[in-house]
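Researcher: Sequence of DNA polymerase sliding clamp follows. Predict its structure.
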Amino acid sequence: MKFKVIDALSIASIFKTLGSLMPEVTVLGLKEGLRISGIDPARVAFVDVFIPQGYFHEYESGEKELVTVKLEEVINSLKYVKKTDSLSFQTTEDRMLINLDGDFERTFHLPLLSGEEPKTPSIKLEFPFKAKLLTSTFSEALTVLADMGDSVNFSSQEGKLALSVEGDVGRTRIELSEEAGTLLEASGTESSSSYGMNYVFSTAKMRNSSDVVEVMFGSQLPLKLRFQLPQEGYGDFYIAPRAE
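Model: Prediction complete. Tokens:
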């Protein structure tokens, strides 16, 4: 497979987000676009990212081309990427070639890992509460709460979304609503569930790739975060609830 991206910083942010959750991912090239998926070692988080063909400057793939890569190596290759850089990827039988052309041209040859097409978990859930908000708003809220405790509670009441953390210094709560302009949409019933802060905060990096995120949860249900990407692409993050 071979593809050249439009926004180098956006793709780098996606890989960095995944790298904070898991050591490796499977990249599946399809005619309609690129699918990147993985499960963290503790099996708390599952990620499924779809980047459609129209998102790329150039895109070539067979019916199904699959490679597995070590995220640390990809992230190190993209460490100093700029939004205006020309960034392309190409796979051979045993390598992924990353070409980065900006102030000067750099080419990285990364070994592929042995792997097979992941068995995507069948996740069919009805979420009692859903809300849409700007990814920047969500990221800022998580940044405020990140150092307050090791778990974050999501709760909904009267169409409002609240994120709260109990820590050594007390309780911190952020309320988001359509009335305040911090939610774009909200619907559903009262719900409450807690999730590991490290997992949830890891998604804050998606603000460089996505403008809008949909938050879905329910009492003792996984948290689903769908980050909208251009050309109807998406990044789905499922995070298992913490036992209460």
